[in-house]
From TrEMBL:
This is Glycoside hydrolase family 125 protein. GO terms for molecular function: hydrolase activity. The lineage of its organism: Bacteria, Bacillati, Bacillota, Bacilli, Lactobacillales. Keywords: Hydrolase. GO terms for biological process: carbohydrate metabolic process. Gene3D superfamilies: 1.50.10.10. The keyword Lyase does not apply. It comes from the Bacteria. It comes from Candidatus Companilactobacillus pullicola. It holds the Pfam family Glyco_hydro_125. InterPro entries: 6-hairpin_glycosidase_sf, 6hp_glycosidase-like_sf, GH125.
């Protein structure tokens, strides 16, 4: 093994990834070509090395770094660490940048590379917002995403250097926010934006729709960046369970109080899921609601953005065979899900973030990533590559009847979820 040098390893990693993709073929020429084009796309076009040894990863055609997006943009590389060791320094550098941003403002979802004062909307100046913050929408998944990356790194490498004192101090800050938002009625957080669609701001003077206590954590905005209809977003609360549980046995001496706080929080959240999230679905089976308010109301749907109900095995909340998940999966992949669309070109899950009848390649890939069927995985890859409109990009969403109509020319999260599925298929083929 060649000597590994810490620091900016972007060039060497890109070279190694190109060699890797050139040595692997997928089930057809079109998929192979798209995979080879996209595997390094995020590093060449979206990733910047910082002087502190971290890496800033913008989401694509928007210049900001979303904590959630950045994690899923680089997550596929974790599976290649054995073959390309330099990836470890890149991935830990991304994690370092994410944790730094969390400490800057744990209520923000997206950040500028510098303290430029740029914001998604000029109207966001009505809320307390740092010049380093692009947008201050509180989304539970934004705080879970760095922890998900850290857990994946540890599980793959066994290395514990990422779990330093700064990591645990950042986690302590995250837990404080989660505890505060279990009682959102007394939280100081609000989000108001004028002259925008109703799903881009919070109702009730920026506090969101009323909720009752459930033990779960209140969420202002979905992973789509659109406002929650009911304040407890179930997939995000499940994400909390999946990322905090593996950290319990790694908490060092000196952070015993933090461990006790996490245990209490996990018990509360799991109890809330059990008592409020399990409902009768339109298919007459018990399954999971998408959102609840603790006052008797719930939302039956799923959205393409991860964490989603479809993605629960992928975020490691449950197995693919867990009965409640299987019932929920049947529902969300059917016309009874208001965001499931079926047209002449595509069928799959969309989002209220994009136009009606537009389907997200992320959800198409996730359908494959949460299946054990290799033929299904190959089929989902085919669907995406056949509807890229010859752009060699996956896009955000595509008209179900016309692949020439799509949103966002370049959306790196979508590209890398395609690569995640491609690598999943390659790795399973190797193990056979």
């Amino acid at each position: 093994m060649r000597e590994i040098v810490k620091g900016n390893v972007l060039k060497s990693v890109i070279d190694d990834l190109n060699k890797y993709s050139n040595n692997h073929e997928l089930n057809n020429i079109r998929n192979t070509k798209l995979f080879r084009n996209l595997l390094t796309d995020v590093l060449i076009k979206a990733t910047k090395y910082e002087n502190d040894g971290s890496y800033f990863v913008k989401t694509g055609d928007i210049p900001a770094m979303w904590l959630r997006d950045a994690t899923f943009q680089v997550l596929p590389y974790v599976s290649l660490l054995d073959e390309i060791p330099d990836l470890y320094y890149l991935l830990t550098g991304v994690l370092k940048r994410e944790l730094r941003f969390v400490r800057l403002d744990p209520y923000a979802n997206a950040f500028n590379q510098t303290s430029s004062g740029a914001h998604w909307s000029d109207d966001d100046s009505n809320i307390s917002i740092s010049d380093h913050v692009w947008e201050r929408k509180f989304e539970i998944d934004s705080l879970c995403a760095p922890l998900f990356l850290a857990n994946n790194l540890y599980e793959t490498t066994g290395k514990t250097d990422i779990f330093d004192e700064q990591f645990w101090n950042t986690l302590s800050m995250i837990i404080d926010v989660f505890k505060t938002e279990q009682h959102h009625n007394t939280s100081s957080y609000y989000f108001r934006r004028k002259d925008c669609p109703s799903n881009d701001t919070l109702s009730n003077d920026g506090k969101g729709t009323p909720v009752g206590y459930t033990g779960m954590i209140w969420d202002g905005f979905r992973p789509s960046d659109n406002a929650c209809v009911y304040g407890y977003h179930i997939p995000s609360n499940m994400f909390v369970v999946s990322v905090l549980t593996p950290l319990l046995d790694k908490i060092p001496k000196g952070f015993e109080a933090l461990k006790n706080e996490i245990l209490t929080l996990l018990n509360d959240v799991k109890s809330g899921i059990k008592h409020y999230a399990i409902v009768k679905l339109p298919n007459n089976h018990l399954g999971y609601a998408y959102e609840v308010d603790g006052l008797g109301n719930y939302k039956l749907m799923d959205d393409a953005n991860v964490p989603s109900l479809l993605s629960l095995p992928f975020i490691r909340y449950c197995s693919k065979e867990e009965p409640l998940y299987m019932n929920t999966r049947e529902f969300v992949l059917s016309s009874r899900n208001p965001y499931y669309y079926s047209g002449t070109v595509l069928q799959g899950i969309g989002s209220n973030h994009t136009p009606v009848n537009y389907i997200w390649p992320i959800s198409i890939a996730m359908e494959g990533l949460t299946s054990n069927d290799l033929n299904k995985k190959s089929h989902q890859l085919d669907i995406i590559s056949e509807t890229d409109n010859d752009t060699s990009q996956c896009h955000e969403s595509i008209d179900m009847n016309d692949q020439s109509k799509y949103t966002r020319e370049w959306f790196s999260w979508s590209n890398m979820t395609y690569c995640q599925l491609a690598l999943d298929l390659i790795n399973q083929d190797v193990r056979r």
